[in-house]
Amino acid sequence: MGTALVYVLVLAVVAALVFVLAAAVFGRGEELAPLAPDATPTRLPAREVSGSDVQDLRFQQVLRGYRMAEVDWALDRLAGELDRVRDDRHELTERVARLEATIARMRTEEGSDDEQRRQW
Q: Which residue windows are coiled coil (predicted)?
């Protein structure tokens, strides 16, 4: 019985040494280095944000929900995009109104020119 216990003990020590050696040589088995504590996997493109970008958005989960800093950053970025789109739309609406006014003015001028030609 004593010999079997020694064999089991030696086997456990050898297994532990092999495990420690393998862990030191091969690392933790991760393909990427772990994120820094303040880093975030949350990403939005540098270009304009589309609906699919928002749908693909994921936040790092913590004990009580999501990281507030990540959510705040994403909301700030989306708010900026919405403001930019609203400003662009307002500018385009004004340009369309100006162009329509110009076209209407040109048509009235053409009409008055035609009347003057008929009178001659």
A: 75-109
Nearest 5°: the CA angle 52, 53, 56 is 85
Pairing of strands 61-62, 65-66: antiparallel
- State both tokens at 16: 């532990």
Give the model confidence (pLDDT) of 4-27 as tens digits: 888 999 999 999 999 988 877 776
pLDDT attached to residue 9: 92
72/36 Cα distance (integer angstroms): 19
Instruction: Give the global pTM.
Output: 0.46
Is 51 in contact with 32 (CB distance < 8 Å)? no
The tokens 């019985």 sit on which residue? 1
Helix, strand, coil percentages for the chain (3-state, nearest 5): 70, 5, 30
